Queue: 2 jobs
Job 1
Amino acid sequence: MSETPQQREAVLTIFEKGAEGRRAFVCPELDVPAVAAEQLLPARLRRVAPPRLPEVSEPEIVRHYVKLSKRNFDLDSGFYPLGSCTMKHNPRLHERVAALPGHQRLHPLQEPRLAQGALELMWRLQGALAEISGLPNVSLQPSAGSHGELAGVLLTRAYHEDRGQRRHKVLTPDTAHGTNPATVTMAGLTVVKLATDAAGGIDLEDLRAKADEDVACLMLTNPNTLGVFDRNIEEIAEIVHRVGATLYYDGANLNAIMGVTRPGDMGFDIVHFNLHKSFTQPHGGGGPGSGPIAVSGRIEPYLPVPVVVRRDSDGDEGDDVVYDFDYERPKSIGRLRGFHGNYGCFVRAYAYICSLGADGLKDASEAAVLNANYLLARLRQLGVAELLPLAYGELCMHEFVLCGGPMKRQLQIKTLDLAKRLLDFGYHPPTVYFPLLVEEALMVEPTETETKETLDEFASAIAAILTEAAEDPELARNAPHSTPVRRLDEAAAAKRPVIRQAL
Amino acid sequence: MSETPQQREAVLTIFEKGAEGRRAFVCPELDVPAVAAEQLLPARLRRVAPPRLPEVSEPEIVRHYVKLSKRNFDLDSGFYPLGSCTMKHNPRLHERVAALPGHQRLHPLQEPRLAQGALELMWRLQGALAEISGLPNVSLQPSAGSHGELAGVLLTRAYHEDRGQRRHKVLTPDTAHGTNPATVTMAGLTVVKLATDAAGGIDLEDLRAKADEDVACLMLTNPNTLGVFDRNIEEIAEIVHRVGATLYYDGANLNAIMGVTRPGDMGFDIVHFNLHKSFTQPHGGGGPGSGPIAVSGRIEPYLPVPVVVRRDSDGDEGDDVVYDFDYERPKSIGRLRGFHGNYGCFVRAYAYICSLGADGLKDASEAAVLNANYLLARLRQLGVAELLPLAYGELCMHEFVLCGGPMKRQLQIKTLDLAKRLLDFGYHPPTVYFPLLVEEALMVEPTETETKETLDEFASAIAAILTEAAEDPELARNAPHSTPVRRLDEAAAAKRPVIRQAL
Amino acid sequence: MSRYTAITGADREQMLAAIGVESVEELFARQVPERLRLARALSLPKGMGEQEVYEHLRSLAEGNVSSEDQISFLGGGMYDHYVPAIVDMLCERSEFLTPYTPYQPEVSQGGLQAMFEFQTAICELTGLPVANASVYEGPSAVAFAAYMAKLYNGKGRIVASAGLHPHTLQTLHTYAHGFGSEVVEVPLGEGPEACVTERQAWLAAIDSDTSAAIFAQPSFYGAVEDAEELVALAKQGDGDPVVIAQVDPIVLGVLKAPGECGVDVAVGEGQALGGRLDFGGPSFGFFAAKQEYLRRMPGRIAGETRDLDGRRGFVLTLQTREQHIRREKATSNICTAQALNALAGVVYLSWLGRQGIVELGELLLARTHYARQQLTAIDGVQLLHERPAIRELALYLEADVAEVRRRCIAEGIDPGLDLQALSGREADRGGLLLAITERRSRQQIDALASTLELALRACWRKVAA
Amino acid sequence: MSRYTAITGADREQMLAAIGVESVEELFARQVPERLRLARALSLPKGMGEQEVYEHLRSLAEGNVSSEDQISFLGGGMYDHYVPAIVDMLCERSEFLTPYTPYQPEVSQGGLQAMFEFQTAICELTGLPVANASVYEGPSAVAFAAYMAKLYNGKGRIVASAGLHPHTLQTLHTYAHGFGSEVVEVPLGEGPEACVTERQAWLAAIDSDTSAAIFAQPSFYGAVEDAEELVALAKQGDGDPVVIAQVDPIVLGVLKAPGECGVDVAVGEGQALGGRLDFGGPSFGFFAAKQEYLRRMPGRIAGETRDLDGRRGFVLTLQTREQHIRREKATSNICTAQALNALAGVVYLSWLGRQGIVELGELLLARTHYARQQLTAIDGVQLLHERPAIRELALYLEADVAEVRRRCIAEGIDPGLDLQALSGREADRGGLLLAITERRSRQQIDALASTLELALRACWRKVAA
Ligand SMILES: Cc1ncc(COP(=O)(O)O)c(C=O)c1O
Ligand SMILES: Cc1ncc(COP(=O)(O)O)c(C=O)c1O
């Protein structure tokens, strides 16, 4: 195939553009008396050679990054069924409201009485998340899902320590996302893995065997990363609670169950939310995110400081109620970061909750589950299921995991090849090789904001790739062909890492 | 060549997407008592079948138009040396300030005392344009260059009519932009063409022969569309004024001369500005624009209503001065449109003038002229000039016109082919086949915001295309190859026009 | 280097050397006669950094009271509708914001297809078969239509209803004086015909020399005309004029389409369709017509075609109408139009959708009706007309309108515009024109009613005192 | 259909038929035990249209007094710098805003290259050879660095200067309690060492069990530390701790780079580099280190490589450090980080440029010096320290700081933060910390001086009365 225009483009970094002396910034004039440099900052503390930042004009910057942006695939341009990531539509209304000066230019140390709007928003968001999760106490502070997990495990520790217990084990199923075990280690505890049963849920035998008084917590996703709702969840909760451990809910898959069932009602003690998944915070190519947590009453005393509270007003200000930060939490695990969390993400999540309301959130989850099941059914109708069977169960929740083993054996193409070939068809591939226990896993999450037409076209594309591969597997094995770059040598990158522009 | 991903995309309009019943809009609730439809609007006046607008969800709209946008070439992504169009960088600061609620949500009929900021901005812009053009009286009203031209010719008529004269001829050089003659006709006058002399300026003999008492006006661009500054301009002014006619300056090429020389000082009576050229209003794919006019004292009485004035305050409001609209202009030609002109464009143009200041504007023109001459020199160095000689003169102002005749004869490719091949190289081509008097014209305007590197690369691309064409002219003749669509059948489009989606 | 340029000292030297001149000064000296060179710097302030410019423009913005700062019932040609966020987002994309008019269709399919879609939406709204890709704005669109009528039938007389917006009438006069047509104004009627075109006078004014007959729907006073009847009166047989309607596009979900009423050309102001107020511009004008006018229409038109390989694509078509090809014989002089605003329009209409435009129209009808009832219940407030009103209401106040306005504004509510101040017509004295959009809630209408009532009483007290 | 979904009734029927279930209800019934199903609707308000949501969020925004509404000298970790318009424009592009973490490098070269450029900029700023693509924000970046130190040398003792931001110290305690390290705080000095780390105590606290020694540059009080000396004291030979500096990146055009001072790891809060205040987040944390820490760093790292055809390209590299590969053995648990904020950072730094970052630093130095002079000339205002200050100034007020603040705020000026209220330290009573950015002009500093003076006098009068 001949090169596409983007493939022909010379790849230069911003540091390789521009010329000595070029610039965009115009420094405000020195409006105060000039003072000798030495007097302001002695030579010993001064930098001699300035950092070699780019020297570029504003038009060069714009053109550089606009062109760079075109080398990205994005949700606004195409279907992005990346399992576990909930790539739902990012409403632009949210960007508009987040950009209002009253939100974006609000200093985090502004007096609470002069930040009542922000505090009210946080308080309302706390309330909504509590209601959605069925757990009444919320901290908005964590910066992402994994940060919420860390908070959760530290809360569990604090809870046990407060009871004089030093439990060191945390149970995680083998389907768990990598952040779960990594978090456990960072929190100073030890991972104990749980097996998965034939239905895709937790192997109860294994759980019973491992649930002892050393267990601090069981971390679970439900529906889990197989897209399977663990029907035994009440029994699991029972087992875990019987040994005095807590039950942690990884909320990455909340999009399946909003308004349908609630972690609190299932028996979970702690849940984290990914506002950048279920609640439309755009992913930004890898963040920002936000990972609030909600907890049951027995965990509440340990929540990070501060939390947002509403109080009756003492009357000075004319309002009935005032919102404030509460720092007086003697049993708190402390802070997880500076200030109060990713407020900009709160604005977007709150706007989303306001837009959808109670019914809309439930509709969203219903549509997410309907879309996933329809896509699965469509793939079956097209005969794809023979080569890519569903790993577990018959139906699925908001996502499903296919097993690429048969495809690999019959067509000699791997899941990776299928994924890369999808790029040529204009799709972002599903998540691949996760969860680990499924051979050649392909994890598909269409989300509720996609149309039936898109699902139909995507299913047809998969079918077409398989048909094509039966004839000529090289097409997939060498895919992608039409992307700005083709397959990249990751091994070389890791072996001799070049992680900055040489200057 | 194989198809690019974009070429493979199915082209569907928004009307062909969606499905019955889909929607994005949520109507605010009916918060007033419901009333029988007939009572509100009788059946006789009611629409029965609603307009068949699209039925699409918000994500579908976003994806549709984001993908459509990627089928456009744009200034932020590449070099756009479109002669006569001044495709200079569009600073995003301007979009930011234009979007401030105090500007964008200001109603045009707001009381002047509650729109002092807007009026002050307009007054300051009037002043700046007057200073730049050397003509003291400004009307911001016209919506684009051609609208400014219409204003100008109507002003000329009003001026003569006020003197009891009904002059019917307007002289325009054969290099004139099409809007000049079209405007003359719309204004009820008759075009008389002037020849161009060997230096690329107005043929003075021809002018002298045609300048008689029937002539209302001479419309001129200086530098003209050949990029040539007419050195005889004073003499031209003299001839025109001697017969009592006015001299009109088409300001499309103002970018060559800001702070260097002024139409008013050259003897012009009326000038229009293209804020969407010299003053960075983004072109928007064909507008909006803004075409203010500046005139000499003798034309002033006829300016459109209203104009913005500054008055000493009567004291009530605390400010020293107040800004207002002046409608009391008995000799005015009247209105050219609703309200006060394209204020959103004024904000951007004014921001630009503030950013650059006196020195910066001059620097911009100097850089524009330097860039054009350098690109010309570079093309010469690369031997391009043999096939594409400069049509007139040795140097140029901010743009230059090459003659594609030798190329056509020697390489058997036309200017159109060269232009289309440039698309494959990632450039927007220069203006082609204008001005009409140059054979196979190629009109190049790099603007001041481009880097030397870009000019070098562009020159090399032209040279490469010529070299390649010497070997294989088909490459250019069939170009472009890599654009979303290839050459389009314009004849068929005009013969059986399909100008709307059939539903 | 100034702002946005990139020529360093080293660049300049190399560039001058390549050109073969000593200095930039020499470049000018060799081309522009010395006498004409400005010997001084422009008398303008020094340039400023981005932050300072932002602060300056922000402080100017703060010198304005916008619809973000007050409850405003101002209308009269531009309206405070809600503009959805996707309109801004899409219009701010470099790919739509920064290209020129699509002269190279191969790399302009985005803009061209959007124009094609826009044209489709305008055809659907107006019920007419052809539309262009935009003209400047509303009033000049009417003037362009009148010019087209003249090109079409060569006649020199324009009959225009006094129900047109004053700016439209003024613009029409300016243009018509240029292209040499006479404008005859048809007065408004009285009683049941108050605020709409007087039918007898309309009939009488139109003769066989009439090039165009023009009315507004609804009228400037918000009164819905009987468009079918106006058309029928204008078209009596041979030598009929071109009937032109200036229509408010946002009400066309509920109001009979101009095309259905027999109108030949429907034009109007597009600001209500996803446009900013922007103190009056930029917005877009739309222009739709019957098939027979296609080749005489002004402005750009996007058309569908195929590429070399048979792919569907779009081009600017029928360019032989236009100035750059036809020059003095062009059907108009328009060049740069309002592509970006038209894009906003078609995005907005897609967002509103087939159901939405009807629902919105019904909401406006109901709220306007409610406002009519609430406001006319106030002592000293009367209706100016009895015609149906969809989203704009004309009232008569038994007080000095300017003073009433001042009092309401002081309470944070702009009650609508002073009809006489805008139209200059003596008959409009005491008239108030107020616009209802979906942003004006019942609560705001109620607030207006009580504020207006108090303002009126205060005026009377002052007079009494 | 709810907002943003697209399943029509007809769609639903076809979809259910394809799946082979009767209803959506059945889909859930077959998977989620009945007992667990929520039998009621969520107790949340009804959904709202876009316009209503906008109005609601706007009214909440108006419940805040932002730096757009008052002259604010608040700093203490986040700063009111001017963010150029290109940052917003680029970050709002769908292509940067909406993708996930770049798991498919072939279609993520934009984001990956931006990360690579960001890493380069951070290396240049800090004078260290390696950097990652971002961590959450400043204080947790310090905690991540301490964790890395522990992974690196296996030791369990962290020495931390009291000059660190209180939030940093608190965060460090929280994390360290988790990963099982002890945190020892080194006090601030007195006299010439006021507001910076007490050198003797620092030296004394660091022993051979010390995993990490951490200080802030400048200190929380805005005082410039002698970083070279702190490093020299910490590194006495074998078994040295990892020396970690939390640095303010915006001053690194004038302040000696951490790398030059011998620091091992430099981390910090990136908000000053083109970030919004956003009531505290999102922003980004940066993380740079000496080469030997590369394979133990947390977070994403973009690396350069080649594609099949030899084209230059970028990938996420050294992923075996990360949770999704290494799981419980990962060097951290971080997954989603702050890519978009980091993009804003590198765009900002490109805009500022090589000269700009120095000029800006000099401007801040000069204005801070000026503020220091003007403010300490006021009766009742003293300096808290004598160390150089670049852009943040700590003062001692002979009055109740809360009351002084209240009085200044009432005049439209926030004079800076109440040190003791934030730190909770008794020693900080009377302390005021104020930040100077390029947005705070001399005029504003002068206004602060006079307002502060009046406020102090008023406080005294009250006490006297
Ligand atoms: C199941 C699951 N858990 C946890 C996480 C971690 O969330 P975050 O990336 O916000 O840290 C993810 C995100 O990828 C996930 O899919
Ligand atoms: C020389 C010249 N005159 C006039 C015009 C018309 O300007 P506008 O497109 O703003 O109507 C143009 C624009 O193309 C031009 O290049």
Job 2
Amino acid sequence: MPTKTYLQAINEALRQEMERDPDVFIMGEDVGPFGGCFGVTKGLYEQFGEKRVKDTPITESAIIGAATGAAAAGLRPVCEIMFVDFIGVALDQLFNQAAKMRYMFGGKAKIPMVLRTPQGAGIGAAAQHSQSLEAWFAHVPGLKVAMPATPYDAKGLLITAIRDDNPVVFLEHKLLYGLEGDVPDEPYTVPFGKAQVHREGTDVTIVATAKMLHTSLEAADVLAKDGMSAEVIDPRTLVPFDTDTIVESVKKTHGLVVVHEAVKHAGFGAEIAAQVAELAFDYLDGPIVRVAAPFTPVPFSPPLEQAYIPGVDDVVTAVKKIRA
Amino acid sequence: MPTKTYLQAINEALRQEMERDPDVFIMGEDVGPFGGCFGVTKGLYEQFGEKRVKDTPITESAIIGAATGAAAAGLRPVCEIMFVDFIGVALDQLFNQAAKMRYMFGGKAKIPMVLRTPQGAGIGAAAQHSQSLEAWFAHVPGLKVAMPATPYDAKGLLITAIRDDNPVVFLEHKLLYGLEGDVPDEPYTVPFGKAQVHREGTDVTIVATAKMLHTSLEAADVLAKDGMSAEVIDPRTLVPFDTDTIVESVKKTHGLVVVHEAVKHAGFGAEIAAQVAELAFDYLDGPIVRVAAPFTPVPFSPPLEQAYIPGVDDVVTAVKKIRA
Amino acid sequence: MSLTEDKLIQMYTTMVRIREFETKVEEFFAAGKIPGFVHLYIGEEAVATGTCAVLTDKDYITSTHRGHGHLIAKGGDLKRMMAELFGKKTGYCKGKGGSMHIADVDLGILGANGIVGGGGPIANGAALAAQYRGTDQVAVCFFGDGASNQGTTQEAMNLASAWKLPVVFVNENNGYGISCPTCKSMAVADIADRAAAYDMPGVVVDGNDVVAVYEAVAEAVDRARRGDGPSLIECKTYRWRGHFEGDACTYRDEAEVQSWMAKDPIKRLREKLLEQGILTEDKDREIRDAIARELEAAVAFAEESPLPAPEEVLEDVYA
Amino acid sequence: MSLTEDKLIQMYTTMVRIREFETKVEEFFAAGKIPGFVHLYIGEEAVATGTCAVLTDKDYITSTHRGHGHLIAKGGDLKRMMAELFGKKTGYCKGKGGSMHIADVDLGILGANGIVGGGGPIANGAALAAQYRGTDQVAVCFFGDGASNQGTTQEAMNLASAWKLPVVFVNENNGYGISCPTCKSMAVADIADRAAAYDMPGVVVDGNDVVAVYEAVAEAVDRARRGDGPSLIECKTYRWRGHFEGDACTYRDEAEVQSWMAKDPIKRLREKLLEQGILTEDKDREIRDAIARELEAAVAFAEESPLPAPEEVLEDVYA
Ligand SMILES: Cc1ncc(C[n+]2csc(CCOP(=O)(O)OP(=O)(O)O)c2C)c(N)n1
Ligand SMILES: Cc1ncc(C[n+]2csc(CCOP(=O)(O)OP(=O)(O)O)c2C)c(N)n1
Ligand SMILES: [Mg+2]
Ligand SMILES: [Mg+2]
């Protein structure tokens, strides 16, 4: 299988869906000739022209609203918010308008739009350019939320997102853009609501999202050296959420560690822990531990930022805490 | 002790703090002569005048930003957002600016402001005027989040909020405005980060917020008739959060049910469940169950809305599920 | 742009239909049959009517919290509207939306909106779809004087103009945002003056003169259909009732209210049409009787329709 | 409003200090010593300098992502700025903020801001505090051409005007928001024209002429201090570098860049001052030497300062 980066995988999904369906188009700040702040839309303007790859003013409410209205009118917009951190100026158009329209209208609207946006810390971009806000989106009925961790999933989930008839928030991790992996050339879909078991194991279940999947896989290697066998699972989508795969795993391993990069307090990891504490309680043989960022904004300076981002050690320590 | 409504208690807290401290002032839509959409600020304009009770244009970003800037410059603004649902047009000023300024500036700013806003369903106000969004605010480092359930707490927590040197989100429940209870005439504070045990019990711990506290207390009555003794706790603030009181209770009752009105998925109840699943796992004798709204927007029609809001039966059923 | 007699009668009929509908809503709200909030359009009928008279079913509108008039003018069905207000399963939204969320996407009505300023960005999107497909559809964004200050509205005007989207921004300046007089929420005298900030035409019209509204909107719609971009039309008008039903309206003085009631847009058109012989008293009675029957039927439909079943709460979240 | 020779020399010095600081930042960023994003102010020095020359330490400013120039002009300490850029504990924000969040509340600098349009509402708040207390302080909101479209900016202008807040909105129109030419993000030719939408004075000035900026801002500040409310000043200027360091800047053509570099605001003032005998080559060398020494000291301070300890991540969240 050909090897591509996570970024290339996203770019390819966009290109192929735009080739397939003339109703798919792109909007966002600097997504045109510039190719996007991180280069995700490179080459699309050249291929599809100004009509289908639209540079917008720096007005995120207007962007999301334009996508919502165009989707209600039957197109399939994919809009980009340059950093997820900017959603605060435009959340209304997403959570009160796009997400709720169908329900409020008694099922009589379809809003097939995708909002792509990068999350995550690690490049010294500080408090307003480094957050992970998936918990907010996952709390909004009417939205679907995808959060790919691999190039393969990035392409397949994005194609699914574009073909979905609902508003989908597609959360990329900016530190994964350079990650390479196997990605088929042809279009394919990865289903929503289906977690992926990345490593099988018997002693503990680690559920991890986005970049933390890779941190957790590394941790699993370390644990393996200490004779502990960790199963590592990526939910891939938070809405819909694949409870079953995780519960099944916990039934086998009897232990759960949840890992994400967002701050722990009221983070999505709590939802995962709570589901397992309800549905697989009897299979657990010890506490559920969450590994996540501390309750602080994201700091700028590298030693602080590194202390902020959960690391391999943190995951190993968490597992050892319940497997001591 | 004098009896007052929740609304009167809030009004009194505002009035007394404004009398005490000339730096405290109020801003918001229709908070002036109109007295606020729900009447919370009635009489304050007459007492304190236009300078200290300011009607604003319908621009929530400008309101929160004005509060943030005024607080950074040393005043103590209390701003009102008419319904919490409107926060989507203005969240940036709250979560990226007010909440993070102190940290981003290396501890060299103080933002003593309060954002008051009503939450909650039950008046047929539908999807954009009925939400409970506390989980979003609780996920933002730098904010404190208070959520009073009684008239007594409403006054005491609001006075604490106004005197606090940090941005505080003060979440009122619109269906509690008419609730009566004992409220001392003199100013007093209720500490942040201290849960309140409203009813002692031995068989199960019920943690409930805002209006759900009362639903849960009713449920406890019903359970008592069936010979089950429920301990009912209101955390009162979500940030800071009083983990200890809840953990201690679970150590005694060995069971936990969490109740809130927000949608369950990624709601704050997950955080409570997750904390207990980590810190009191060994004391639990069965699954943790959450009672919360289903994953839908808030519907308009009364039978739908009533089906949406968690009720006494739902709490009773949840307890019986783990105490069967 | 001279209006045919038919068109004038049609507009007159629409205005009366709105007035009578709202009067019924007032009555049933007071009787406790309509839950939630209702914001009545009485006094402002000429704006929705004059505007929508220019549009076809294929054109789009975004409405506001004060949306009944817009919906009726755009062709909304009174039965399904009334049923929705009553919270019934047969309503436009199956009882899920209520007054603030009635929509009829098939008629291009992209919904009333509970968020002040929520409609502008969405209207742009519908207009963008028209531009993208090369149709001649336009989108009208109704918004209030209060909404004109909201950032979303201002962003929407900017984008519409930068992209030359076929949008008409129809401002309903009724002098207040709830209790706040327009003059306290903005320093500028005419909202139409804001058009210049986006390099689009901006005009002020008498919002109680349905013909004036029609003509201004017709020009703006032509411009939009030609591909020349958006316009802003400020319609000066007044709401007769409180902000929502239940508002005691202590912030307005009676003389002001009376002076505006004297400018009743319906009475005004009626007198003009009678004078010009386009309408007769008989014809008027006929129109009013037909509307009364229509409304009776709508109310009966609403009253007799079933409430949604509790389990329906879970439906219609996702497509 | 004739400027004293001292003031002119002071402004010249500030502009050179900004230019040299930014040139060092460019160098250390390229060398990998400065993490994160940096947006340089080179070419726009006259705007911050002319503006802040009008202000006192008690006045407030809100800055942007392109904030170094504003900070230096408002009196920011180069050592602590450079240390912050290096991520050091001795920096303005103890290494927690970096380029986009440097602040010095004691100097009235309410922070650079990573959110485009984030500053306007906050500047209003500071101005409101001044109005509330009856001081004669003003607040200046710096914002870009791109930021002028953002809803928050437009809301801020409206509120400032409705409340007659002592704010001066200083627009730095450098022709681009990242890669997007101003003319593509708005239909209007001059951002200053938007002032009329809020009934405030709006003027366009040559943003590369520090004296012109000073004079326009001085008039607006006077007005604000008198209690007559806000103004909008659009300064036409240009950034010499890419949007951020690392931007290859393929979206601008070389001729355009060259033509603007020929209008170098520093060179221009220098020539004028030399001509008028206010500056001599010797004096210039003295100024530049002093700045070079100051910068060397700042860099040494930054280099030698300790990094924050990992556990400091948890500090400074709450007061
Ligand atoms: C974002 C937002 N802020 C505030 C409100 C509360 N609210 C509902 S209607 C209204 C007044 C709107 O005034 P205007 O736009 O002039 O419309 P009108 O009611 O006069 O028709 C307000 C403040 C809201 N629904 N949404
Ligand atoms: C709300 C928000 N949207 C987008 C961005 C990304 N961004 C950072 S700077 C910038 C361009 C700003 O343009 P302008 O206001 O003209 O300032 P300039 O960079 O030209 O000084 C953009 C789009 C952001 N930081 N915040
Ligand atoms: Mg109005
Ligand atoms: Mg610019």
